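QA checklist item 7 of 12: single-chain prediction sanity check.
[x] sequence parsed
[x] length recorded as 223
[x] structure emitted
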Amino acid sequence: MKYFLIILYTLFTFISANSGATAVPGAAATPATTTIMVFGDSLSAGYGLPQEAGWVSLLKKRLQTQSQIHLINNSISGETAMGGRNRIEQALKTHRPDIVILELGGNDGLRGASIESIRDNLEAIIEACQRNNATVLLAGMQLPPNYGIAYTQKFQDIYAQLAKRHQLKLVPFLLDGFGDKREFFQADGIHPNGHAQQKIVENVWKVLRTMFKSQPTIADGRP
């Protein structure tokens, strides 16, 4: 009788320990969370604007009803492509994003950095993201015409070339639709004002939405 009880107790313990690994018929699976990290400069950091007024905050608000989407803003005002290259590995390790919205290079262009260095640094960021299984959405930029036709065209071409080489989704120009209209910029003539932020959201969203396995419903009802 003593040995029977020992065997019975052992069987009960084994069954209890493994019961948690048994799937419950009809139980719904927990939806996977998609983490999006915006990795940019002052245009994405919301320079000169209230924190809640920047385009990243507006995009986050648009997605707030989507509990399976987590948006992180890892943008720094004044950031360059080289600066981004130096900190991307740590950012990927910390946040483990599924999608990275890469918005860098504008400060490099405004400083007249070599086209080769801008391209190389952006490419290093892209490759780091891909090694960490993060899909990149590249946000293109353009420079004012006073930087010269040759330089501005080569700068603009960087983004399309990288998108093609690495098969990336591309927003051709982050400031499309208002980049040449002074009324959408702050006093410095460089940073978009509050009126421009929703326009940036639309430019990003029309590409970003295609990157989800199932397109999330937008809180404000727009397609």
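[x] summary fact logged: The first helix runs from residue 2 to 18.
[ ] second reviewer sign-off
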